[in-house]
Write a structure and sequence with these properties.
single chain, 23 residues, 87% helix
Length: 23
């Protein structure tokens, strides 16, 4: 399993969530 590839994706999703919450 490639956990390293999932890390950046998780960060992106978290950023998106924060962006959506701001709106």
């Amino acid at each position: 399993m490639c956990s390293r590839k999932v890390w950046p994706l998780h960060s992106l999703i978290k950023t998106w969530m924060s962006y959506l919450q701001k709106y």
